[in-house]
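Quick one: structure tokens for this chain, please?
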Amino acid sequence: MKQKLLYLLAFAAIFYTSCKKDLGNYTYSPPSEPVVKGILNANISALIGDSLIIKPEVSLAGADPLKDLTFEWRILLLEDLREVSYTGYPLKMLFNLGTGERSSTLIVTDKRNGLIYKYKFKITGTTQFSQGTLILSDDGGTAKLSFVKPDNTVLANIYESLQTGSLPKNPVQLYYSKPLPYQLLSKEEYWILCNDPSTGSVIVNPSTLLYKDNFRSQFFLPASTITPGRVETLMGTVAQGVINGKLFIGVQSTAPFAPDYGKFANEQNGDYTLSPYFTYGGAFYLGYDLKSKSLVTFDGGGNYLGKTYTSSTLPTAPFDPKNIGLTNPIYMKASSAGTTYAFFKEPDGNTYELRFNNQLTADTKSIVAEEKRVFAGSSLVQADSKWVRNSINVFYFSSNDKIYRYNPIGQNLELQEADFAGKKISMIKISDDGNKLYVGVAGALHTLDISGTKKGNILSTINGIPGSPVDFLIRAN
């Protein structure tokens, strides 16, 4: 027994010394890692209905990447709460995963050792309508929709070209209902607003320009007839506007991806008939009531306050904001605070210009009348003249085929240079920076330069529009 123990101790000593002598006598060679270029954090554009091929540059030192690596491509479809997976290199597919940005991952597995490498990237689904200019026009009383590609190719009357049926009569406005970048899964729509009692207005899919629904679906309890006045975006999210002479505000109390988000609930109740010219100032809404012929207010949530504000009380006040008495407002875009101008074309043939100081805040609710006078360009104003205002209270208005610039300080009128060859102006819009005017005439949409000392020379023209433009929007992506 002692002899066996002695042999075991001797064997252990030999094994220990042999291992000790071996330390440092070998070289460790870690396996090579794959190198993948051109995919990490990339945002890859994919046109719906077209082939998508993603082929990053892949190398693997001392091995064959196509034999020793496997490739899996995972694309997240957040609206369906699932992922789709594709295998192989490169990724080849007919892209049909819808529009918008998709979080995606390339998973590379080294078959030699089982190591896994992940590369995050994004795929943004687009259509031929994702970038370009959408133009709503009036062609003999019927709405027409045209799309202008970035290369200025005009797809005239595209709505009827893509499907059977035509748009409603008497187009009024084109509105783009779109989510903010962080509002995932929110609905995205074009509203083609028309004064057509029999058909109403329609909602169009912005990716396909196909009919999506009747505008009545935007209301929880739609009226039998819906007459749009003007709609605009509320704080970049939902819509607000004057419809059937009442103020409507889109519901924001649900999540942005909920079906009811942005829908119009009941009208803001009150004994008033609101003109299309209203202003949202954060703590208030201000509009002109056609019924009482006065300025009326709503609180920031849309609750009707009427004429509860304080106003001019001096006998020398040029007019009473609570009893203006004028019947036909043709333009008013109030400032959130400070000097505001309003224009009225009255049955006596004159166009009147009113100036008042708006002090409507959460703490102060006051409107001070400052001046009432016959507008310096009264003889030029027509019932269908188009108006816009820049951020410093300089106005542009149309008169047949002419555009005039008006500065109330000094009552300066200035004819702009653009020549429209006798074609009556059907639309004027101003760029956000105030440097460009967009002007519609029969068959065309013009861009004018009004920056600095420029006097409205034509920068560019889009021809081939059916009828006369009434509204347009530029879609960047």
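The chain has three helices and 37 strands.
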